[in-house]
Amino acid sequence: LMTNKRIVQDVYVTEDGYYIQRHLPTHYTKERMDEKLAFMKSLLEDYPSAYLLLIPSQDSVMREKLPWSAPYVEEEVLLERVENHLGSDHVVNVYDIFEQQKAKELYLATDSRISSIGAYYVYREWVADVGEKYLWYQWDDLSTVTEDYRGRLVQTVAFVDTKESLEVFTKTLDADVIVS
Known about the structure:
180 residues; alpha+beta; flat; two-stranded parallel sheet; 16% strand; three-stranded antiparallel β-sheet
C-alpha cells in the first residue's frame, strides 16, 4: 500500500478497504466451461430436483472498485450460457439482485465470501424460484459474532492487522434462529 500497489498476489486492494480476488477472463476457456457444464448436467441427471446457485464474484459485481483498466470476467454472459445449457428451471439467478443491491455490503471486505446480507438475498431468490414463502429477516437485528475476523484475502496479501466484524441474523419476524 505504501508504494500505491493495488494488486498483490491476484488480490485487488481497494482504497475503501475491500480485498477483491482477481478472476481473469483467460481462466474461463471454452474447454474448461464445457467440462464444468458437463459435470453440472450429470449432477442434474442424478438429482433432477436440484438447483444450481451461481454466486457472482466480487470483481464482477463491484467493478467500480477495481483499478481503471483491470480485466474482469463478464459473469452475466457465463450465467446465460449455463442457463441455456442446463435450463433456467434448474438455475437460480442471483446476479441481477446482486447488481441491484450492490450498494449494500453483500460481500465480506477481507474475504471473497458473501456476507449474511448477501446470503439473505441468495436465500430469497432461491425460495422465490422454488415457489415457497421466505422468512423476513429484520435488518436492524444483526448480531456481531466476532470483531476479529481476518479473511483469506487479507491473509493472502499478509495484512494481518486488518480485521472486520462478522454479523449474523439471529431473529426473523416469524421465528428465532439459533446460531451455534
